[in-house]
Amino acid sequence: xxxxxxxxxxxxxxxxxxxxxxxxxxxxxxxxxxxxxxxxxxxxxxxxxxxxxxxxxxxxxxxxxxxxxxxxxxxxxxxxxxxxxxxxxxxxxxxxxxxxxxxxxxxxxxxxxxxxxxxxxxxxxxxxxxxxxxxxxxxxxxxxxxxxxxxxxxxxxxxxxxxxxxxxxxxxxxxxxxxxxxxxxxxxxxxxxxxxxxxxxxxxxxxxxxxxxxxxxxxxxxxxxxxxxxxxxxxxxxxxx
Length: 241
What we know:
2 strands, elongated, coiled coil, mainly alpha
């Protein structure tokens, strides 16, 4: 019980609260660079994902309740403004928003084509190129035979050319089918959450999808984005920064 009370006092007043006044060090002021402005203004990203696979670890700056209470009192009761605190919070959030957006972009690209699909595309493209080369050379040869009045040879080569053209048409149709269906096998099964970047299965039950939407990581990014866009719009209208 005593230990719990000690931890509560430390959380509210700082680790030095229980040290004798004669030797106690003073906590920094709320405006100190050592104090986390994200914690004061909103929610520090380090506090959003505690205990999850996205855990960012402990924030390197101070999180003292007395500073947060002072900030709320001065802004709400006394009407003071600390735009520099908000801007620091905004830039802090921007770091993590940019990072998760890059991860989402990478995840979406991974779903575009599997290695097997890329191999199919490369193979059929190469086959088409080879056929086009053969058709081009054969067409030139037929033109030469026509000029040389080699009617019989021209007829034989024309038959071969016709067969090559049919083969190309069939291969082109196959290529179109591949192009239309690439990614379908993976995309039918997976999608990327636009908020937190998690892979979601389209085949999951509504319950599993609902569990994701109320999960700590997903809600953490939702909260982070909401705060970020609110501040983004605010600073977009302002010329202070």
